[in-house]
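Hi everyone,

Forwarding the result from last night's run.
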Amino acid sequence: MSNIETPIICALVADADRANFLPKFLGFDTLIFELTTYQVLSEYCPEYKGGYWVMWELSNGGFYMSPGRKDETYSMSCAGNYFDGVMTADAAGIVACLVALSRMLWRKPEEKLNNLFYRLRDWAGEHPEADKIFAAID
């Protein structure tokens, strides 16, 4: 038996699957998650004014969304922990989703939400911008 961990694979959700994607994970909490995620990015990134979000499914049973195209960057600032930096849209989406899940857990501590948080956090650890992501959510 090997001690080598299997890397998490991230797959883009097809447009045809978007409507059912978040409810598959969140059920009735889908709308709360979406609104909280958009609010978090608005708080952390004043230049964010809304737009199309890309959805990603993780091979470990998690998911996340990211704003815009992967090559776009966002200036992020978190007054609560003094993080201030620039990251890709992909990393900004991971931050927004992690914070949204965390806020939801404070209001509704459920194993389902907790598992989704830690699955995404595991993916964040493998992300090329892991240091920035963890600094922003710390």
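The longest strand covers residues 53-58.

Cheers,
N.
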